[in-house]
Design brief:
The chain is mainly beta. The chain folds into six domains: 133 residues, YVTN repeat-like/Quinoprotein amine dehydrogenase (Methylamine Dehydrogenase, Chain H); 96 residues; 279 residues, YVTN repeat-like/Quinoprotein amine dehydrogenase (Methylamine Dehydrogenase, Chain H, 7 Propeller), CATH 2.130.10; 31 residues, no CATH class; 59 residues, no CATH class; 68 residues, no CATH class. Helix content is 6%, strand content 45%. It is elongated, with a radius of gyration of 38 Å. The protein starts with 13 loop residues before the first strand and ends with a helix.
């Protein structure tokens, strides 16, 4: 039975216990220390960032060694568990997945680089001693005596002699495997968590020739194993924690089970329903959200694997089910969803997108898969493309797929031929790229602690980073709707950014969620957030703004007025489908009673046919009032009453008059020359008259210049004639 539990800051990936303290590799949140003195009431003590996803942890003395994915192995001083501090690190590893420490040696499962061995006699300055490559992907390592045992994914169990740490050598293997991810070793046996083949017990009494002694939980998806008192405890994915009696390794038997709770990882909205994919026994849940304030469970179906992503199109839901591949679910009756098709893939199906009868599926270490689902009951893979990283997310735009490829950054793939996807461009970033969304010529990437990265993809072959936005947390997923980007920011909840100017994104709103934000879906009316074990949060009318002390800020976290708009798009706009679309200005007294009201408005009779108005409402705050100013469609201004301007010069009239008449053209000024003047009888516009006189003088000067030129030409001709006579 469960005797105690603690809700931690991050997703639990691995645990090591030393005395009264547990040390948790909490994925994106780093290392968490927990006081377990009272097992019924464990208490979180501290969290320390490890730079990337903390996958595994080992304790040796006063130090915790954390396998931190792309950030190598971080060495943390935990002599005071309540105040852990960084002591050292070794980062010359492409991807650290597991670590074990024996004496002054650290053994690291380094993914595609196999097994690496480090000297940690001085934890502050660890040094690489040696390593050995493995055929597939080193996921886990255990050490017993002079041998290291490596879980090598599809390469099965590899046995490595470490008698000479500077020159380790593989001496044996048990390659008949499904997906060997973790293992435990005791005596002459290695206990291998081997994916769909369950727990496999391997006799390693002869390290050069390991053989299978027994197996249990075949058909369950075994991902980890631990041993205690003749029992093996197996993390069996959606089957919970399975317990096996392994007192006789050749004849293991099931001895018990504990089911986990729902882990919601992805959500999609369609009509009145939300479709939630989660790491649980019931992997696709259908929620009726017709009442968004009180969503209820409408239906559910077990997809066997971990539900990592879901997309709904018409009557079908398509679920990326991690190591179980793609599932197709008929949701025509949301209360009774039915599985109609399934396709196994080689890797971990994490995200998907649907277009024109094809599902584009990110498959972890196996890159991109393209699946023909024109017949939902019989999905068929038609194309694939390997990628250098761990493909986690994708977005489709035009003829391209944009892949969030983990340590491989952003990969741009031409999918104009679904059967032959072709890589054409890429961009690497500071941290793993977990999610991607595309809008127009820009891709928006979630980049872990680096926040959101904006990339110009106007030339897909040469993507170019143009901006980075600090979201405050660990950016996991992103969606773009209109001018806003919505970011699932792990412990910081939902972050909304204005990306109307992509090169200058601005955080314009934040909303804390009830749990860690891992995935999200936006449809314009609602934002749905998948929060792992925290369930799903729905936000209606998710306005990107802040309210501080009664002041509303749009584009600013520090509003200085009741309404404060800031940013490159700071424009107030009011739309109203009737005349007198208006903005009302009311001056009140100390009690709030109106003293004077003006209304600024717009009337219109058709496209580009309208007028601007200014009405005087007196002390009223409703009604039409009295028109004071009209500016018509031609730009003519009409005032009601007398308009004065005391700064006009005294010789001129200070009144606007409607009885203006043109003076007759002065004698000698050609018609059409613009020489006429507008004036009031008995008065003269001297400024305009002066300008006209100047223009006339210029014209006369041009006439004089022409006459002088003619005289000069005549003089020249006379001189030539005189010369001829001589």
């Amino acid at each position: 039975m469960v005797v105690g539990q603690a809700t931690l800051s991050g997703f639990v990936a691995d645990i090591a216990v030393n005395g009264n303290h547990a040390y948790v590799a909490a994925n994106r949140m780093g290392l968490v220390t927990v006081d377990v003195t009272d097992p019924a009431h464990p208490a979180e003590l501290a969290v320390i960032d490890t730079g990337d996803q903390a996958r595994a942890v080992a304790i040796a003395g006063n130090y915790a060694y954390v396998a931190s994915s792309n950030n190598g192995v971080q060495i943390i001083d935990v002599s005071n568990p309540a105040a852990p501090s960084s002591a050292g690190f070794f980062t010359n590893i492409s991807l650290a997945l597991a670590v074990r420490v024996f004496g002054d040696r650290a053994f690291v499962a380094a993914h595609s680089e196999g097994l690496k061995i480090f000297d940690v006699s001085n934890p502050g300055t660890p040094a690489l001693l040696g390593g050995v490559d493995t055929p597939f992907s080193a996921n886990d390592v255990e050490v017993a005596g002079s041998y290291a045992y490596v879980a090598d994914y599809a390469g099965g169990l590899r046995v490595v002699s470490i008698a000479n740490a500077a020159s380790p050598v593989e001496v044996g293997a048990f390659p008949d495997a499904n997906q060997s991810r973790h293992l435990a070793v005791s005596g002459n046996y290695a206990y291998l968590a081997d994916g769909s083949r369950g727990l496999r017990i391997i006799d390693v009494s002869n390290p050069a020739s390991p053989t299978q002694a027994g197996a249990v939980f075949a058909g369950f998806f075994a991902v980890d194993a631990a041993l205690l008192g003749g029992k093996a405890f197996v993390a069996a994915d959606n089957r919970g924690c399975q317990v096996a009696d392994v007192a006789d390794p050749a004849n293991p038997s099931a001895a018990g089970v504990h089911d986990p709770s729902l882990f919601n990882y992805s959500v999609c909205l369609s009509g009145q329903y939300a479709y939630v994919a989660g790491w649980t026994y019931d992997d696709l849940k259908v929620l009726d959200v017709s009442n968004i304030a009180a969503p209820r469970l409408a239906g559910q179906i077990d997809t066997v694997g971990e539900g990592c992503d879901v997309v709904v199109d018409g009557r079908y839901a398509y679920v990326a089910a991690d190591y179980y591949g793609l599932f197709v679910i008929d949701v025509l009756d949301p209360a009774h969803p039915v599985e109609v098709g399934q396709l196994n893939t080689d890797g971990a199906s994490l995200a998907l997108a649907l277009r024109q009868g094809y599902v584009y599926l990110t498959d972890g270490a196996d890159g991109l898969h393209v699946v023909d689902v024109s017949n939902p009951a019989a999905p068929v893979q038609v194309g694939a493309l390997d990628t250098p990283g761990y493909c986690k997310g994708l977005a489709l735009s035009g003829q391209y797929a944009y892949l969030a490829d983990g340590s491989g950054g952003l990969r741009v793939v031409d999918i104009s031929d679904p059967a032959a996807p072709a890589a054409i461009g890429s961009l690497t970033t500071s941290y793993d790229v977990d999610g991607v969304a595309v809008s127009g010529n820009y891709a928006y990437l979630t980049n872990g602690w680096n926040g959101m990265v904006v990339v110009d993809v106007s030339n897909p072959a040469q993507p170019r980073q143009v901006a980075t936005l600090n979201t405050g947390g660990y950016a996991v997923d992103v969606a773009v709707w209109g001018q806003y980007a919505y970011v699932a920011d792990a412990s910081r909840g939902l972050v909304v950014a204005d990306v109307s100017v992509p090169a200058a994104p601005v955080v314009v709103g934040k909303q804390q969620t009830a749990g860690q934000s891992y995935g999200l879906f936006v449809n314009g009316s609602y934002v749905a957030i998948a929060m792992g074990e925290g369930g799903v949060d729905f936000f209606a009318n998710c306005d990107p703004d802040y309210t501080v002390g009664g002041y509303l800020g749009v584009g600013t976290e520090n509003p200085q007025r009741a309404v404060h708009i800031a940013g490159p798009n700071a424009v107030f706009r009011m739309d109203r489908p009737q005349d007198s679309a208006a903005f009302m200005l009311v001056r009140t007294d100390g009690s709030g009673a109106p003293q004077k009201t003006f209304v600024v408005g717009v009337n219109a009779t058709g496209a580009n046919q309208g007028e601007f108005i200014l009405n005087d409402l007196g002390t009223a705050v409703a009604g039409g009032g009295t028109r004071r100013l009209t500016i018509d469609n031609a730009g003519q201004a009409v005032f009601t009453g007398t308009v004065t301007a005391q700064s006009f010069p005294t010789p001129s009239s200070i009144r606007f008059k409607t009885d203006v008449a043109p003076l007759a053209l002065p004698v000698g000024w050609p018609a059409g020359s613009g020489a006429g003047t507008d004036a009031v009888p008995g008065e003269m516009d001297y400024g305009r008259l002066t300008a006209l006189l100047v223009e006339r003088l210029k014209a006369q000067q041009r006439e004089i210049d022409a006459l002088q030129a003619a005289v000069a030409e005549l003089q020249r001709l006379l001189e030539e004639l005189s010369a001829l006579r001589k």
